[in-house]
Automatic annotation (TrEMBL):
Residues 46-66 are annotated as: Disordered. Pfam families: Germane. Residues 99-190, 251-340 form the GerMN domain. This is GerMN domain-containing protein. It comes from the Bacteria. InterPro entries: GerMN. PROSITE patterns: PROKAR_LIPOPROTEIN.
């Protein structure tokens, strides 16, 4: 159910907003649902026209099987033990209102409680009700919450914005998120006063890291995926970093951040060898990004095998860039590579439909 994000620029205080567009996930007409909103507000109960990045041809059969079984995989952004907002793909009951349901599963003490992975928690305050979602034609979703939404600690404010925004923007055509409380637009978040009058988008980033930025005004952002571990569980964590505005190639900049790795105090790691380098400038054409690395990309793997963690970190990070749908990987100009299990990479690699399920 993942959707590649449009993540190029973000503000450190999350000031831009996006509203959700389209109809529901499974196709069909809009149905209107109102729950004590102002008279000029209508809420979409049946968002059937929404598509997801996972609904590409290669995943259609899986979607049919899930639908027939009365369940659907949904990407929920939860908070891990280190305080990072992290995608976890969970199997939820089949419903017509997928966006509203996803938000309901972000509520502490709500239906997600018995499904939470070890070390994770839901971020929305307990007893918060999702009053409705309003879909706009411009790619905006308005999410309306009950007054309990405001009952959170100041340190959770950005986590809440990021979790709500990234959960909703997993759906195709969804670009922005705007928040209402009890039917009324909010210009500021209720506790720490983060500006939200224009809404929030993935461009505002997630798990913001500006530790290496001296002059933030002369930087731009890039979201990369590092690794975290909880017991035997290894999972991918998106981190939005600041890079020099003078960097001419955004794709190369993303790769450089993956190789450089996370902040040493972050508790995150990278699986990239520090000697990994691009031999050629990345080539982009019709949604496909082609990369040619040196042999250090193999790390400690035997033969022409690429670590799954390296491969998925690359694909997840680069498909966050606008327009990138798949990544073709070469080493010394050769394309005959294999994944960790020895399966030949005969086609460019697309973003996985399910993030952090152990299915990589």
């Amino acid at each position: 159910m993942s959707k590649k994000a449009n993540t190029i620029v973000f503000s450190t205080i999350l000031a831009s907003s996006m509203l959700l567009t389209g109809c529901g996930l499974f196709g069909g007409d809009k149905a209107v649902e109102e729950i004590d909103p102002p008279k000029d507000v209508s809420y979409v109960k049946d968002e059937k026209s929404l598509d997801t990045a996972g609904d590409k041809q290669e995943n259609k059969e899986t979607s049919k099987e899930e639908a027939a079984a009365g369940s659907v995989k949904t990407e929920l952004y939860l908070v891990d033990k280190n305080g990072y907002v992290v995608p976890q793909t969970l199997v939820l009951p089949k419903t017509e209102g997928v966006a509203k349901q996803a938000l309901e599963y972000l509520v502490e003490g709500g239906p997600v409680t018995n499904m939470l992975p070890n070390g994770f928690r839901a971020v929305l305050p307990a007893d918060t009700r999702v009053l409705g979602v309003k879909l706009e034609k411009d790619g905006t979703i308005i999410a309306d919450f009950s007054p309990e939404f405001a009952n959170y600690k100041a340190e959770d404010e950005l986590k809440i914005l990021q979790a709500v925004t990234w959960t909703l923007t997993q759906f195709d055509k969804v670009e922005r998120v705007k928040i209402r409380i009890n039917g009324y637009d909010k210009e500021l978040m209720p506790v720490n006063n983060t500006p939200i009058s224009e809404g929030v988008s993935r461009a505002d980033g997630i798990n913001l890291d500006s530790s290496n930025s001296v002059d933030i005004t002369n930087t731009k952002s890039a979201t990369v995926y590092y690794l975290a571990q909880n017991g035997k569980q290894t999972y991918y964590v998106p981190v939005t970093k600041r890079i020099s505005a003078n960097e001419k190639d955004q794709f190369a900049a993303v790769i450089n951040e993956l190789v450089k790795g996370p902040n040493p105090t972050s508790g995150l790691v990278t699986d990239f060898n520090t000697d990994v380098k691009l031999l050629d400038k990345p080539k982009y054409e019709n949604g496909q990004l082609t990369l040619n690395f040196n042999e250090s990309l193999f790390g400690n793997m035997e033969g022409n095998k690429i670590s799954d963690h390296v491969l998925q970190s690359l694909v997840l990070s680069l498909t966050e860039q606008p327009g990138v749908e798949s990544v073709a990987i070469q080493v010394n100009g050769k394309e005959k590579l294999m994944n960790e299990d020895g399966k030949k990479l005969t086609e460019p690699v697309v973003r996985p439909a399910d993030v952090n399920t152990g299915s990589f």
